Amino acid sequence: MPQMTAALVREQGVTFAVVIVKNHVLNSPASADQMIRAASMALGCPLVVLMGETNQRLRGNRRDVVNFVSKIHPSRLPWKKWNI
Q: What pTM was estimated for this model as a whole?
């Protein structure tokens, strides 16, 4: 069963997901958009930020949420493995 590592966060009345992905996914806008849609459906959360697994680059479907996540150290996020 495929798994993903993600954190669901609720901050200031906004719920969003941060999902760990392979670095190469962030290099392709089409791949990143596809992963955002898939993660959104799997987690039931429309706001998604992708984070590169080693380079920690960010890409998401809302700039303000991406900027917010960029200010949080990854160790502070509530990571969990999700079966998809």
A: 0.93
